Automatic annotation (TrEMBL):
Annotated organism of origin: Streptomyces tricolor
GO molecular function, one term: phosphatidylinositol-4,5-bisphosphate phospholipase C activity
This protein's record includes keyword Hydrolase: yes
Pfam families: PI-PLC-C1 (PF16670)
Annotated protein name in UniProt: Ca2+-dependent phosphoinositide-specific phospholipase C
Lineage, highest ranks first: Bacteria, Bacillati, Actinomycetota, Actinomycetes, Kitasatosporales
Keyword annotations from UniProtKB, A to Z: Hydrolase, Signal
UniProt entry tagged with the keyword Hydrolase: yes
InterPro entries noted in UniProt: PI-PLC-C1 (IPR032075), PLC-like_Pdiesterase_TIM-brl (IPR017946)
Signal peptide residues on this chain, from the entry's feature table: 1-26
EC number: 3.1.4.11
Domain of life: Bacteria
């Protein structure tokens, strides 16, 4: 009888351990519950010889600067040349062509490189592709949100995590899905790219352009959802600029505010000014904090020590960032691939 009671106690203890978090196996972290590292302007040849090397770097975010070239009706990838390409994307469409072809290609080739690289690394962790549309969209020239979606879908197909995937056929807006923490786990996002779009510096300085990338793509998402075509959308628009509180209320019409769940702002502005960033993690929004090196005390923008990067990642995770970015391309993959719990 004593042996039976002991066996029953052991079975009960095992059952208890099975349901207690942190015992037999920790729960897989959701995409919304982690903080990772990204590389600013990863298309620049001074950072990586080929864009495939940027993908190899382990960084969880890679940034592209894209111009809508209305003369050629092509998407140019460059820092300052709106009519030409100046980048490390190569004319490579297959895995065997990577790291060897001519560079300075357009956005389509950058996407081709990603597709070819994805074949070599189908189990890679999720990578956010941050696209700054330097002069914005130009729908009249055939370079609008629809055309952007079509190009991404044609090149990358099912390897893109889309707004429709977050909605999951359950939620009516991205805001509702994010607040319900409908984000998948990082493991289930392996092999996926997520695109987020921000207005560009030229667009913002243009006195004749008040309809920027973020608002235009927000309208696009709203209208696609209303038409039952949200599955066509390939990207998430981001609210640009650090703010204390919800920046959507003062920037957008109420009809598109629920379509913004990505936010992008200067890390030092958030932290050094003491902004309450818990708003982002409590609602499971994606917060990208840029120029992470400038948070006090400032560290190198190009090649800080591994310990400094780890400390900065931990600090900004505490401040609820999802992704932190800088020009740390010189760091090894063991550093750039670092992921830590958020908040």
């Amino acid at each position: 009888m004593r042996g039976m009671r002991r066996l029953a106690a052991l079975v009960g203890a095992a059952a208890l351990l099975a349901v207690l978090p942190g015992n037999a196996r920790a729960a897989e972290p959701k995409f919304s519950g982690t903080t990772a590292i990204g590389t600013h302007n990863a298309y620049e040849k001074t950072k990586y010889t080929y864009f495939a090397q940027a993908l190899d770097s382990g960084a969880s975010l890679l940034e592209l600067d894209v111009y809508a070239d209305t003369l050629s009706r092509r998407w140019r990838v460059s820092h300052s040349n709106p009519l030409g390409n100046d980048n490390n994307c190569e004319a490579a469409k297959t895995p065997g062509e990577l790291y060897s072809k001519s560079r300075n290609q357009d956005l389509g080739s950058c996407l081709d490189n990603m597709a070819a690289w994805n074949q070599l690394h189908p189990d890679h962790p999720p990578i956010v592709v941050k696209v700054e549309l330097k002069v914005g969209f130009n729908d009249r020239a055939g370079l609008g949100p629809d055309e952007f979606d079509t190009l991404v879908a044609q090149k990358l197909g099912g390897s893109v995590y889309r707004p429709a995937d977050l909605l999951g056929g359950t939620y009516s807006t991205l805001d509702a899905a994010a607040k319900a923490d409908a984000w998948p786990t990082r493991d289930s996002l392996r092999g996926k790219f997520l695109f987020d779009l921000i207005p560009g510096t030229v667009e913002q300085a243009n006195p004749f352009d008040s309809y920027w990338t973020d608002e235009e793509y927000g309208d696009h998402l709203r209208d696609l959802a209303a038409a039952g075509r949200i599955s066509a959308a390939q990207a998430f628009p981001a609210v640009l600029g650090a703010a204390n509180g919800d920046p959507r209320t003062s920037r957008y019409d109420a009809s598109i505010r629920p379509w913004f769940v990505f936010f992008d702002g200067d890390a030092a502005t958030y932290v050094n000014n003491g902004y309450d960033t818990s708003f982002y993690s409590s609602n499971h929004y994606v917060l990208i904090t840029t120029d992470a090196h400038n948070v006090s005390p400032a560290i190198s923008s190009t090649n800080p020590t591994d310990a400094e990067v780890a400390a900065r990642l931990a600090l900004l995770a505490k401040h609820h960032a999802s992704l932190i970015t800088s020009d740390w391309a010189a760091k090894p993959a063991s550093v750039l691939s670092s992921v830590t719990p958020r908040g």
